[in-house]
Amino acid sequence: MKIRAGRNVILHLLPLLVPFCALFLTGISITVLQSFNIGFGASPGPGFFSAYQEVLDSQFFYSSVLYSLVIGLISASVSVAAGIGLALLIHNTSSALKKYTVIYKLPLILPHITVAFIVLIIFSQSGILSSLAYNLGFIDGTQGFPNIFYNKTGTGIILSYIWKETPFAALMILSLLQKLDNRYIQTGKMLGASFFRNLRVLIFPHIAPAVHTTFIILFLYSFGAFDIPFLVGESSPRMLSITVYDLYFRNQLSARPQAMAILTLMFLFSMIFITLYTRAVASLNPGARKV
Amino acid sequence: MIRGVRKGWKNSLRKDRLDKRRETGGRHRPKGRIKHRPKGRPAGRQDGYTLAVLFLVFALPLILLVIYSVSSAWTFPELLPENLSGRAFKYAAGQWENIAGSLISSAAYSLLTVGTVLLITLLPARALARYDFPGKHLLDALLLVPVLLPVMTFSMGIHSVFIRTGISDTFIGIVLVLSIYSYPYMLRALIAAYMRVSEQYSTTARNLGGSFFYTLLHVEVPMLLPGIAAGSSVVFLVAFSEYFLVFLIGGGAVNSYTGYLFPFLQGSDYSIASLLALLFLIIPLLLFFLLEWTTSSLYRKRGLET
After folding, report:
1. Can you give the C-alpha Rg of chain A in angstroms?
2. Which pLDDT does position B35 carry in this prediction?
3. Are A20 and B143 in contact (CB under 8 A)?
4. Chain B residues with CB inside 8 Å of A29's CB?
5. Torsion of CA B153, B157, B159, B160, to 10 degrees
6. CA-CA-CA-CA torsion for B130, B136, B142, B147, nearest 10 degrees?
7. Chain B partners of A105 at a C-beta cutoff of 8 Å?
8. Among B232, B230, B228, which Cα is nearest to B240's?
9. How confident is the model at residue A45 (pLDDT cuts 50, 70, 90)?
10. How far is Cα of residue B198 from the mean position of the Cα atoms in its chain?
11. Per-position b or e across A132-166, b if 16+ CB within 10 A of its CB
12. Full-model pTM
């Protein structure tokens, strides 16, 4: 029984709407205003769009955008795919042993900076895998091991995100997987469906909402986050977040509007991405619950 | 919850139990936990592989941190460190005031964040779960945005407002910004919890003369506890492990463990860095055991199933 009630609802929502407007919306607005050289410490002067002009004129910006997009896409897609696998693995574990599978949640309680550190000690050229490869005779020295940190490919960043985010994806997907009646899958098997056909026809449509939500969250997170690239990132090309940080804190005050312009563009991109992605998902399977 | 009395043997069983409860002053409970026989297939070799993979991928890296923390150095070609040493522990013991101070500070602002978030989301979650109003779906989506957007986009703007108002570099500033960043997790958990609880309990309580807030606190909140616990643990973790926001808004004036840890992770002494990274886990693990214990004992006390 749902009640229609006007004033009551507004009173209910106020405790959240006030801080939401006062902090979140104000924060965004200030970012946008400062990108137009308006107010709050930014020097007045060279016109509304000068920051955007400077940002869009620099080659550096485009390489940064591309780099962030690629890293975000790869780490989100791999995490979600691995998360589906992990969720299925855990779901199919015998209930006698299921309680031990909680160890998959360990990366969830670690901060991002620790995750990057762990990936560093394992995968660096003098790291643990490198030592293992040396002792097994695969490589002759540290130079034989592929250098994945501080190079242009961003592999170190991607690996850190994947290790941290796969359990998150699995957690989100498991909550839906548990609601799937196992008899569907058994019926599918009895009718001769292969594992992959079952996955595509039965399991995936069922977990799709979690998959899409998780993908959006993870993509936008790794696209714009700061912690991991700050610890193990390269100096060129750079993630957008690091570029913003440098422009804002390590440059002259006059460069701050540029930092805010990049943030505004990131904000617009994120909103457009969320809208388009949810639209695309909705049009793929009309009638299904939106993300 | 007491259901309608059924006929037959179950009824007499229930009667027995009720009689016994009366004799012992209502505190009788069967000794030991009832063991449920696991359903489904028995454990097989495949489960062994699964657990081995999970252990290798998710637990072994933490064990590497443990090995690092008890070694003096673990350099390139060694498969295991040659010398064990308590060097990192000695260092940590010498620095215990800094370590404990920043751990406590982090725990304090994270707990305050959980409290703030709970306060600001409880009623909105109630409205979003129970009322229909125009624009509900839009609002629902809009309120999720802080967790989807890159943090920097709003936090840098908030930062300049905080500098203006003098909240920057303070404890309150950190709690505010962390709350705005993490409340969607609690909101979602609470909405889901409200959906699971029948509205009729509240109606009954109101009909019996309970005020709105009395009903909220004594009827609804107890039933929402599983959702509150789930939301709180996520919010706590997000706040406790956040580095950038605390570093931006706190500006080094407010101690935080992530801020303390960061330079060590960047440095070249992996032994100390590993130990400090492991020490981080103390507070979350402690709180989760505490939470688990309090909720289960609370439920047992009320005679509800967990």
Report:
1. 23
2. 55
3. yes
4. 157
5. 150
6. 20
7. 58
8. B232
9. low
10. 25
11. ebbeeeebeebeebeebbeeeebbbbbbbbbbbbb
12. 0.86
pLDDT (tens digit per residue) in B279-295: 999 999 898 888 888 87
| Chain segment B158-191, per-residue pLDDT in tens | 998 898 888 888 999 999 999 999 999 999 999 9
Question: CA quadruple A151, A216, A220, A68: dihedral positive or negative?
Answer: positive
What pLDDT sits at residue A184? 87
CA of B270 to nearest chain A CA: how many angstroms apart? 8
Please tell me which residue of chain B has the smallest CA distance to A85: B50
> Can you list the domains of chain A with their CATH numbers?
59-284 (1.10.3720.10)
Res B129 pLDDT > 90: yes
Instruction: Say if CB B238 and CB B185 are below 8 A apart.
Output: yes
Q: Which two tokens stand for residue A42?
A: 């930014």
Helices marked H in B27-69 — which ranges? Answer: 45-54, 60-69
Domains, chain B, with CATH or none: 99-301 (1.10.3720.10)
Biggest alpha carbon distance in chain B? 75
Q: Is the Cα dihedral B40, B45, B51, B57 positive or negative?
A: negative
Tell me the two tokens of residue B279.
Answer: 């020490």
Average model confidence (pLDDT) for chain A?
88
Enter the tokens of residue B262: 């960061």
* Residue B11: band (very low, low, confident or very high) from pLDDT cuts 50, 70, 90: low
Residues of B in contact with A112 (CB under 8 A): 241, 243
Residue A20 pLDDT > 90: yes
Indicate the residue type of B8.
G
Q: Is B209 left (phi over 0), alpha (psi -120 to 50) or beta?
A: left
A30/B143 touch (CB, cutoff 8 Å), yes or no: no
Query: Bridge-partner residues for A3, per DSSP?
Result: B131
Closest by Cα among B130, B125, B156, B158 to B143: B125
Residue B110 tokens, joined: 């994270």
The token pair at B272 is: 């100390």
| Stretch 119-158 of chain A: residues touching chain B, C-beta under 8 Å | 121-122, 126, 128, 130-132, 134-135, 142
| Residue A240 contacts residue A262 (beta carbons within 8 Å) | yes
Q: Which residues of A touch B119 (CB under 8 A)?
A: 15
Contact residues, A window 160-219, toward B, CB-based 8 Å cutoff: 163, 167, 216-217
| Residue A286 C-alpha, separation from nearest chain B C-alpha, in angstroms | 17
